[in-house]
């Protein structure tokens, strides 16, 4: 289904991504035009390409002339579930059944958050209080998030 939100190509010394004609395979799984191949280069990580078939979908950029590519930035389809700089977050843990306790709120300064003194083997829930609507519980074991 391709499942890509964004792609950007850069020459070795550029800070702005290259522009060109967006090319690819038309047709989206939703059959309403909302998740077409053109979304891959629209600059919006909340839109994505979801091809109508399980395989064969692709999106590309015709640059018009040959270019040396120094860097590619790829963003998978994710519904914007990232830690975003400037957003307000609050981490909760489940103390007892249906009894969630806050471990504090903080404004993100980067693409990660740091919480200390988290109970071991706790069921956790991170809420984005700025724009979040999709939340999922998880545990943190051996330095790894395990989604439940």
Question: What is the topology?
Answer:
Elements (H helix, E strand, L loop, with lengths): L1 E9 L10 E4 L24 E2 L8 E4 L8 E6 L11 E9 L2 E9 L16 E5 L9 E4 L2 E4 L1
Antiparallel strand pairs: 1-3, 1-5, 2-4, 6-7, 6-8, 9-10
Structural commentary:
The chain has 2 domains: 75 residues, no CATH class; 60 residues. The strands form 4 sheets. A 3-stranded antiparallel sheet has the order 3-1-5, with no helix packed on it. A hairpin with a 2-residue loop joins strand 9 and strand 10. By secondary structure, the chain is mainly β. 0% of the residues lie in helices and 38% in strands.
Q: What is the N-to-C succession of helices and strands?
A: EEEEEEEEEE
Q: Categorize the overall geometry.
A: elongated
Number of distinct beta strands: 10
| Integer average pLDDT | 92
Fraction of residues in helix: under 10%
Number of domains: 2
Keywords, separated by commas or semicolons:
148 residues, mainly beta, 3-stranded antiparallel β-sheet, 38% strand, elongated
Summed up, what is this model?
The protein is mainly beta and 148 residues long. It has strands at residues 2-10, 21-24, 49-50, 59-62, 71-76, 88-96, 99-107, 124-128, 138-141, 144-147.
